[in-house]
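Subgroup meeting minutes
Present: P.N., E.W., G.H.
Scribe: E.W.

1. P.N. recapped why we're keeping a running log of single-chain structure predictions: easier to compare across weeks, and new members can see raw inputs and outputs side by side.
2. G.H. added today's entry (174 aa).
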Amino acid sequence: ELGAGRLDAAALVLRAGEVATLDLQARLAVLACCAGAGGTVVSGEGALGLATGFLSAGATAVLGSLWPVDDRATSRFMADIYRALADGSTAAEALAAAQAATRRRPETSHPFYWAGFVLIGDGSVTVPLVARGTRWWPWLLAGGVAAAAAAAITSRRTGRPEATDGCRRRPPRT
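Output recorded in log:
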């Protein structure tokens, strides 16, 4: 809703309940945002959040993060995921390959950068992607911007100061 030239931030928040009402026929939903796979724990139900919403809407599997992630490392991580999917890997194999590649890089070897990514649902699902050279970057950039905007809006709404830095938390020192 627009008012006096300002956008209503509440209108931009994506809620699991709204997602669950959709009729999706997606093989894989990728939530490359701050803690997209996390949620609120409800007694007898488990963790309810965006991942649950996508599964309820018909997605076969959901890939997401359990905690706020570093933007740059996640961008590279997602490129590894999509590359593996384009090569014919299952979602579970693509996740394992991206985690291994991230662990091998000295700057992202700490578990903070790769251990929080989880696959919920059917890990044997494949996604028929076609590698197009560098044409994937606009989609990755758009997804990153959308994730950062959603995180900023959510953090302002919940008043959680640890999330107001655009999910650029750093790993603990070892």
